[in-house]
Amino acid sequence: MASLHTVAIDVMSGDNGLEAAIPAAIVFLKKYDDTALILVGDETSINQELTKHKQSTSERLIIQHASEVVNMDDSPKLALRFKKDSSMRVAINLVKEGRANAAVSAGNTGALMATGRFVLRTLKGIDRPAICAAIPAASGHTYMLDLGANIDSTSEHLYQFAIMGSELVHAIDGVDKPRVGLLNIGSEDMKGNEQVKAAHDRLQNGAFNYIGFAEGNDIFHGDVDVIVCDGFVGNVALKTTEGLAKMLSEEIKAGYTKSLYAKFAALISLPVIRSFRKRFDHRQYNGASFLGLKGIVVKSHGGADDVAFANAIGIARKAVIEKVPDRIEAQLDKHLTK
Amino acid sequence: MASLHTVAIDVMSGDNGLEAAIPAAIVFLKKYDDTALILVGDETSINQELTKHKQSTSERLIIQHASEVVNMDDSPKLALRFKKDSSMRVAINLVKEGRANAAVSAGNTGALMATGRFVLRTLKGIDRPAICAAIPAASGHTYMLDLGANIDSTSEHLYQFAIMGSELVHAIDGVDKPRVGLLNIGSEDMKGNEQVKAAHDRLQNGAFNYIGFAEGNDIFHGDVDVIVCDGFVGNVALKTTEGLAKMLSEEIKAGYTKSLYAKFAALISLPVIRSFRKRFDHRQYNGASFLGLKGIVVKSHGGADDVAFANAIGIARKAVIEKVPDRIEAQLDKHLTK
What we know:
Chain A is an alpha/beta fold. Chain A is built from eleven helices and eleven strands.
């Protein structure tokens, strides 16, 4: 079994900590027999949680003790300096040491990115790592980056994001020449768009399949595979999407319980609603890739449940199999020597 | 009838031109008897459209001929220099000349803003006018500005947006002390947020009710009345909202027509769906205010139908009655002399 992939999981972080991470690990192991998991965190607590699920450790389920936890509101600085034995840090150390091929954490984004950068370092040619995730679209889904690692991205940064996003989608989804779009606002001739225009010119000279500007609504059309943008803008778009989807689903639910008649309608509609929910289940989109690091780090949503968390582990596994950092590095080499 | 308010309507612009604007005007006039409308555009075409609707001109329905139309893809520069008799320009001229109290247009945003700025000028203390509109939230709605007039807004600009947005919501919705939030991304300690932090400090010294940072999902929570942000970010958030809402409504529709059973479920669900649609009908949110100008200009969505267009005229009427520019000017005076 020398060919096992290994993913280190920070099981202590996120809103749900062990309660989401342990069941996720168990479900994951049943689904994939080519991958081993290292559960990183407080050994006693992990053992308790495993016992609760009648699960014992094995060759494919290993515990690595870590005495500290990075809290959701810890600053990256604090996490880096004072929590050197945190579950997050130890998981990433395992990647650095070659004992794991990837790390997954639901911990705070800032601390995770800072730790990933500090421990693993960035690939040659990458100024800033970026966060990339898929958002469900009318047909399939659209990847977007950066989702919040950097703000004030220059055209050079956006160019690097395009290389990384294109390579990720090629690797993960098997899309041959992913269509890359640059996020812009509609009224192109309005004041101040020079910055985006510079990026537009830069992207046209890339060896990826750049198809031009995309607007906010294009995220959902499915006719672009990767949308590249500044991290502030990307994060706002992501949060806006999450907020609106949540509100609408709650309003629909409220609408269907308002009266006895509405409840009856809901009952009749159940198959339709279920199929809709399945299609747009945000949990199946959980798992954001930190791109540009010398190693694989996947961020699970802070509020992820076990199903969502297992999906994030699945994304890490796919990135390991497809050797995403190596592929990005090869592309960067090509671009840099051009 | 000296006390009639007067709104000039550019009836030629937008995707639907006269076909949306004329029925909108007719519906509007039936609803409000305190307002007169000046239809600005090609006189012959307007008369033909009025005849089609069996409507004649009156003291409250006046035609003002304009020989040109600004196209959706005309640059602001082109519109300003070469289309001096456009329906858009003439409508705004009427405001400048005091013959109308407000102008409404579904024409291209860039040209409309440039024309508004050039003809009406900005209020003292305003560097950049901003676009402000309401977005439906879980309870009521949330105003957001800037939605795309400016990019690279400084903290001083955001401060001005806060004054204007706060005053608009106070005037239009009668909210006593509108809660003003500053759009930010969650991970506050991540690199590069100094710009937003500077704006945060600046906003805390305002005479408005600043409640701190808001994230993308807060748009839909209804616990902030005005969200202030850079125009690029605001425009992306708005387009993202529109795109997702459109996709979800189409997917729901598709889900409910997939099989005979689904169609039956849709029939049963009709009252629930109708009430939901009514609540989130984007048409009732149509009408973006251009704030910071010495006059009232309201932008109707390019694709607005008659119902949506009539709503935009209604927003202009309300702004006239509440003297929004005067109120903003008074607030600016207060802030500037502080």
